[in-house]
Specification:
Strand content: under 5%
Organism: Prevotella communis
InterPro entries: Cro/C1-type_HTH, Lambda_DNA-bd_dom_sf
Distance between the termini: 69 Å
GO molecular function: DNA binding
Structural class: mainly alpha
Helix content: 55-70%
Number of strands: 0
Protein name: Helix-turn-helix domain-containing protein
CATH architecture: Orthogonal Bundle
Number of helices: 6
Shape: elongated
CATH class: Mainly Alpha
Radius of gyration: 21 Å
Length: about 110
């Protein structure tokens, strides 16, 4: 069984619990308390505690992003859904509308 199979074998709740556990590790690495995160993120202390303990399976994306921002790891969000490389059709379309050579008038 590979990692992808293992991921797809987990429920949404299990995945969110794992994210909460990882978030706690990040927060502790930053030497921040749950209260500090809640204040910086503008979320309740209950939200932070519930997320980290795995009791919050319905955390909003807004709260999650705010908490990542609070601990200084917002750039990690791009790893959730990295940009897709352009398709050949997109490249062709971009090249089609590329400006041609521009001449300066004298």
């Amino acid at each position: 069984m590979n990692y992808s199979d293992e991921l797809y074998g987990k429920t949404n709740s299990e995945l969110i619990m794992e994210l909460g556990s990882r978030f706690k590790e990040y927060r502790l690495t930053c030497r921040m308390t749950q209260k500090e995160v809640s204040e910086h993120a503008g979320v309740s202390l209950f939200t932070v505690k519930a997320f980290e303990s795995g009791r919050a399976c319905n955390i909003t994306m807004n709260s999650f992003v705010a908490m990542l921002r609070a601990i200084g790891y917002l750039d990690e969000i791009t790893k959730l859904l990295p940009e897709l490389p352009p398709t050949p059709e997109m490249i062709e379309k971009m090249n089609k509308y590329k400006p041609k050579r521009v001449r300066n008038g004298k």
